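Hi P.,

Sorry for the delay on this. The queue was packed all week, but I finally got your sequence through. Input first:
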Amino acid sequence: MASTIGILSIFIVDFVDMYFLSILWESELIAAVWFAWIILFLLISVWIALMITMWSLVSRILWEWNKLKAKTTAMNILYFSFFISIPLVLWSYFYAEELLSFIWAKGQTLEYALSYFKIILMSLPFMLVWMAGTWILRWVWDARFGMMPTLVAGWVNLVLDPILIFGFDMWIQWAAWATALSRIAMFLVAFYWAIKHKFIIFCNCVQLKDDLKIILAIFIPAMLTNIATPIWTWYIMKSISLYGDDVVAAMAVMWRLTPILFVYIFWMSWAIGSIIGQNFGAKNYHRVHEVIKQSIIIATYYIIWAIIVLLLTHNLIISTFGITWNWIELFKFYTYFLSIFFIFNAILFIWNAAFNVIWKAYLSTITNILKSIIFLVPFVYFLWNSYWMKWVLFAESLALLLTWILTLVLLKKYLPKEQTL
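Then the structure:
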């Protein structure tokens, strides 16, 4: 629960950041932020894959109560993460304009997106230490302090946003600097607690070389799984950007609202991975099944309540962000109809977390690629050319439903049976 509060603070502050920009009454600003975040989302997905690799390996080692090996493995994966991330960040910085133009950002929106993207981009490596630090604190049973980096970052961003956005003329640049500084604050707090728990050690190059094969065996499928979602986000954005910056801004509000409403689902899908991993390592397969079953029940109840909150507040959101009348119907379509499909998405998150820790990470890759590319792209193309814009969003839900059915079949086949205990 402590981690949920920390993650929620980040999502809320990002949403407030967008609200401050909306006060300036330029849809290009909100659209620019979202164009930039599509590319950033792709890079962060690689970061998340690295952290999935960390908790998949370390959770099994901790079951053996070998804390020294767990510490060494965690730090080696973190060093490996820097070897991957630094060149990727530098390449993205120098080719930023080409990347943003590729998703059809143009004109004034492209200029705004470019300045925002480059500032945020250079703060991304600091997020690696925050992610690793959060997991480390959970492993040493200090989850209460695991939320501190995100809470500190949220407060820094919340305080700096109005000061920098409204106090200076460079609105979107200062909004980016507020976010970048909050990421640095997040890094400093996470680094402090990692030192306190004596987790910072030098890279063991010999063990890293020995572990590299198993690290890549988890990291590569996890990365392919995670980048599939930014790819379909890019494709949908490329389709709707033809309707102008107003609709991109409306979509940005919806997609920034989603993680706030369903934050507990994101956290739970991350947290249960280590629980499943430890029980799988102990060959307690009955407990593995029970964790998955109870997680699905909790997720379903939570989403129903989240949807009720959305139904009660959607008119307030529309008036707050000044969404144009042409796209209010689109937002209501999302509220009244599409949001219920997140139940299937939540179950997929849980099942994919299980696949990652039972040595079947490639199944997560297969299901995500099917959902995000094989199923989604044809649906979007057909519905975009044949019907109104809102049916492009329905294509995502249709692809999700088909993937859910296929994943259920795979889970029944590959998850160890309870009677094998």
